[in-house]
Amino acid sequence: MMKTILIITLILISSFLSAQNKNEVLQFDKKLNEFHNVRDFCISTDGNEAFITLQSPNGGISQLVTIKKENNEWLEPKLLPFCDSFMYLEPFLTMNGNRLFFVSDRPLDDSIDKKKDFDIWYVDRSNKNDEWSEPKNIGKPINSDLDEFYPSVSDNNNLYFTMDSPNGFGKDDIYFCKWEAGKYLTPVLLNENINSKGYEFNAFISKKEDFILFTKYNEKDGQGSGDLYISKKDINGKWNKATNIGIPINTEYMEYCPFYDEKNQILYFTSKRKNIKSIKFKNISDFKKYIKEGENGLSKIYMTSIKIK
Question: Does the pTM of the predicted model rise above 0.85?
């Protein structure tokens, strides 16, 4: 009898610890702590290649980097070869790994050195060991004389993105473009179950388009600043009312730029969470390590195990 009770107790403790680990929010990789602002994340289906945005302290300089994993360890980040003096951010890698979408204010004509509004661009390659092509503007009807941000693509090539348009519900809204007969149709504004009079942005679409993750800013039911929300489709293919994804993912600080690895059920996101306080330091090296590695209020990539179904 005692042996049975002991086994049941151990199972309950194990389940409790497993549940705790699933909710634990961790930094993606501490190698990135040497950079001031790290945001926007996507990872290949095999988990061995990731793309990230690095920015200057004020966000005025923005570049894309790739990091690769060897022997289960992430190597040093490398600048993508097409990056130049213009802004580059918000990468999204397609499932086959051969097309990388991103956002830039680079001009349409390489002979012009004046930046334009933000557009969605992409580069192609034949395989993961091949070089990327020159950047290609995705063009109309997606790009316009307004700013377009944060591309995310489902398995059937339908594209979701953010746009600040006078025809939207609010300041920033989320739009959808259907891929049909080899081209994108006119962007469609998602309904009020997703968008509002406030700010909605940084939408990640699932492979089957059955759920969408995005940020709402300063919502009444939020933790504060930007929070991650989720909406799922009903049996009729309509989006349900978006709900706050909750703590510990959301905090009183800014959470944004979600990317969900459906295979491994890991949510990656950017956060400006802050949880450091003044303590007694051994020396200046101890001070620098504590400030750089902790949740210091600068944007960093975080990850957590979460099952979305």
Answer: yes
